[in-house]
Amino acid sequence: MTADVTSTAQSELTVISQAVAAYRGEKGKLPTASLLVDALLQAEKAAKQQRLVYNFESLVGNWRLCFATGTRKVRQRGGIVLGKGFYLPKFAAAHISFSADLGDNSGRGEIGNQVQVGSLSLQLTGPAKYLGKKNLLAFDFTQMQINLFGRGVYNKPIRSGKVQTEDFYHQSIAKQAFFAFFIITEDFIAARGRGGGLALWIRDN
Question: Does position 2 have pLDDT exceeding 70, yes or no?
Fold first, then answer.
């Protein structure tokens, strides 16, 4: 089944869209963290029930992290529970980017993760692969770059660099970090990470 954002419950999308617009400063107030977490959980549930499938190309671009939840272990239950969630402060911009190798339909591509505070930025990049039927994007970071006032001051491989990049595509996803996406639109995306936390990103124009 091909994804259609209208298939997801409209009430959940309304709350999420309100958060996106307010975070951008376009209109309205930010929904409370608990309200947004509930909306994301309901949207995730709806995506599973409707068996929505998204393609890798719809992820390609640059996205700014808007909202995230942490997790905490519960020893008595032997599992994890979501944290309360929080909106990312505007002064600490965190971006994620995806690019796809469109020629061979292999689901291979690259991921970038950048955090910028003032004149200092830290960027991690590495290989990614997308499992379309599960809406899973596995990834690894193999290169680190640090910029200060727009000038590179550090740029080196993480761990084994290129050798690890080649091995990445042959590893089982059980050994890799990943995002399980349950909403992908032109304007925002949402996913659950391997650790169990939820995240909402907005497209960065």
Answer: no
Tokens 């008595």 sit on residue: 76
Q: How many CB atoms lie within 10 A of CB 120?
A: 12
CATH architecture assignment, domain 5-203 = Beta Barrel (2.40)
pTM for the whole structure: 0.88
The span from the CA of 123 to the CA of 186, in Å, is 24
Give the side-chain half-sphere CA count within 13 A for 155: 5
Write the pLDDT tens digit of every residue in 143-187. 999 999 989 999 999 875 555 677 888 888 888 999 999 999 999
Q: Where are the domains of the chain?
A: 5-203
